[in-house]
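Progress report, Aim 2. The chain analyzed during this reporting quarter is listed below.
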Amino acid sequence: MDMDRKLVSIREAAQFLGVTPTTLRRWEREGRLLPDARTSGGDRRYDLSRLGSESQGSDHPDRKTVAYARVSSPDQKDDLERQKQVLELYCARQGWTFEVVADLGSGMNYHKKGLKRLLNDILADRIGRLVVTHKDRLLRFGAELVFAICEAKQVEVVILNQGEDPTFEEELAQDVLEIITVFSARLYGSRSRKNQKLLDGVKLVVEEASS
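Predicted structure tokens for the chain:
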């Protein structure tokens, strides 16, 4: 055994590479980066010297890191700024060269300018890493599809918070209202009395849930 090599935990290895421990576990399953040893308890250990030469970020040095932030409505602009600050601080601490893409729009809207730009850059192999604060910041429904595209294009996805987004309930209520509005208009016509009565009732429920 080489006595000069330094073995570190999965947490330290992930920090060194600028990814999460979950990413390292996935790389192990895919055979991309295997641990150098395991403790008697089964914990992974990585050789720092090898990580330095096999860093996953070096596979595509010409690709950029993009941090994506989004809020649903104009009155959440303060939250948008907080998201951007969190993303900027995290990326800077990792030593990454990055840019921030921000959107103002519903998580149900697939046509947001920033999101479309992000997807175009991913498909064009211009992005090597995508960073978000929460999964739902990308899309309310369909984020997994974007992540699958990232995986196919070898884009590393970093989600800073795996828990529930603090604005989850409020934004989900608004997204549900948006869905009902679309389907109600198709069923009854956008200007029908029945449609308006249904929407007024749903809005009341949404307001009560958000208060």
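Strands lie at 7-8, 37-38, 44-47, 64-71, 98-104, 127-132, 156-159. The chain has three domains: 7-55, 64-159, 168-210. These observations will guide the mutagenesis work planned for the next reporting period.
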